[in-house]
Design brief:
Order of helices and strands: HHHHHHHHHHHHEEHHHHHH
Distance between the termini: 44 Å
Strand content: under 5%
Largest sheet: 2 strands, antiparallel
Helix content: over 70%
Structural class: mainly alpha
Length: about 400
């Protein structure tokens, strides 16, 4: 049995079946977990075709313009059926990423595949799916000590969805080659900006910043729990409404505009603390390979916990630091690994399995959502403690 587990061919065969199952479940199972593909990404494609303009380039958009890449590639693969093109593309990208990861440690590839399945169809039906795969290519290059290429891949991934800064910032603070990482990040970022300008870009290249800052508090976010439960317990008139512009459910209630404007600052402070702790651990003599997995996990959780958006696909980000930790052989890594798996399963139950019950404010369904969010917070506390302990242990060794 073990020889089959160690076979990359078996891994890829299982991965193909798993992706076909995810596609079948997403298209014909509970709810519409793949709804973003036909109801958001494809209409955006048609808007660009009809207007002759590019979203995020010369039309305001919620994402940075490099996020157009999977949309246009999906249309190229199957011009007649966009959803089929998307599913074909993400399946191919994931299989290639799994193959590369398995060349270093096949158990890391198996973890990611299992996590994709347990998280459900959202793991392959969001823009985040591609940003995670690209980030994992960056992890592969990083473990092979290809610093420039790994930094470029992290930067490209961050230009699609901002979360990979959770890899870049700790890498900069913990590495002896931080200037090299900063330079590679800057060169890649400027290169992408030049591409955007060559495509006819204007101020819309930065429109995603205002889109995100103007949105409310999404019901799945940890901070939303206050209003959800105060309304559920009859302590306030808080409720849930649908935001047509952002295409998501958000909470309504007293104090939301203020908290919505302030929580972004809390996120930056949390990231700053993570960067500082990473730098202190490196200064104390901790190895880069020991710091980066736990620091990047901490930073990813910073972005999730201190976020007014709580989209279920955010859970896909957690796979990257866990895979990195497996590849680096991080100590005490079983706890975060199984914790992330539990968070993934709970996220699948929240969306799409019990999502209608959450919208209907069924107490038991809201309790599952609260449990998942408390899990995020608990894992963040553990990660910060481990990052602090890493410095202390290094000082004791000296």
């Amino acid at each position: 049995m073990r020889k089959y587990f160690n076979s990359p061919i078996v891994l890829l065969a299982v991965a193909l079946v798993a992706h076909l199952w995810l596609i079948q479940t997403g298209l014909h199972g509970i709810g519409t977990p793949m709804g973003d593909v036909p109801y958001a990404y494809e209409p955006w494609l048609n808007q660009m075709i009809n207007s002759g303009k590019l979203l995020g380039v010369n039309i305001d958009w919620v994402y940075p313009f490099p996020a157009l890449l999977p949309i246009w590639l999906s249309a190229f693969i199957n011009p007649m059926e966009f959803t089929t093109g998307w599913m074909t593309l993400i399946t191919a990208v994931d299989l290639v990423a799994l193959w590369f990861i398995s060349r270093i440690r096949i158990d890391a590839a198996w973890f990611w595949l299992c996590y994709l399945v347990l998280l459900g169809p959202i793991s392959i039906s969001r823009m985040d799916s591609f940003s995670v795969a690209i980030a994992l290519f960056g992890v592969y290059e990083l473990v092979r000590r290809k610093l420039n290429s790994s930094t470029a891949l992290f930067t490209i991934s961050a230009a699609m969805k901002i979360w990979p800064i959770a890899l870049l910032l700790p890498a900069i603070s913990a590495s002896k080659f931080r200037l090299r990482i900063i330079l590679a990040t800057a060169i890649t970022g400027v290169s992408l900006l030049v591409v955007g300008l060559m495509l006819g870009g204007n101020a819309s290249l930065f429109s995603f910043l205002s889109y995100q800052s103007n949105r409310g508090i999404q019901i799945e976010s940890p901070i939303a729990s206050w209003w959800i439960w105060s309304g559920e317990l009859g302590l306030s008139n808080a409720g849930i409404y649908y935001d047509n512009l952002m295409m998501t459910f958000q909470v309504a209630g007293d104090g939301i505009p203020l908290v919505s404007s302030l929580i972004g600052y809390a996120m930056f402070i949390a990231l700053g603390i993570t960067v500082w702790l990473s730098w202190r651990a490196a200064l104390a003599g901790a190895k880069f390979q020991a710091i980066l997995p736990i620091a990047s996990l901490t930073a990813v959780l910073d972005l999730i916990v201190f976020n007014k958006v709580g989209s279920p696909q955010f859970a896909t980000w957690l796979a990257v630091p866990i895979v990195l930790g497996i590849l680096y052989g991080s100590a005490n890594w079983k706890l975060p690994m199984f914790s992330v798996i539990a968070l993934g399963v709970t996220t699948y139950l929240i969306y799409p399995v019990f999502y209608d019950y959450i919208l209907d404010a069924q107490t038991w369904a809201l309790a599952i959502l609260l449990l998942r969010n408390l899990g995020y917070i608990a894992l963040l506390v553990w990660a910060n403690r481990e990052l602090i302990r890493l410095r202390s242990n290094s000082l004791e060794v000296e």
